[in-house]
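Bumping with the actual sequence this time:
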Amino acid sequence: MSAMPAPSEQNVKLYYSIREVARMFNVNESLIRFWEKEFPDIHPQRNAKGTRQYRKEDIESIKLVYHLVKEKGMTLDGARKRLKDNKRKSARTLEVIERLKSIKEELMEMKKELDAI
């Protein structure tokens, strides 16, 4: 299972609820809360009621953790070490993978259209 695509630039909100974030990645809310404890880069703000409010930066950190743990199969310790040692490289790698997936989807759509001719 892969993470859902990020919201389009036009629909970007400043804050997302834990429910929205969990749905983006097709995981339980409890997993997001657990990752918060395990990865210091995930630190949502809280409103007056104590409700978590995730910013774009938090979602990007969750996306990296999701990629390393769920897609690459790394342990939490391994993912934590990778992000501590070289978060920027991991983020760039993930960006390249996402862009390649997008190109693949575009090419598959073009092929489908050409096959229909």
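The tokens above came from a reply further down the thread. The mean pLDDT is 87.
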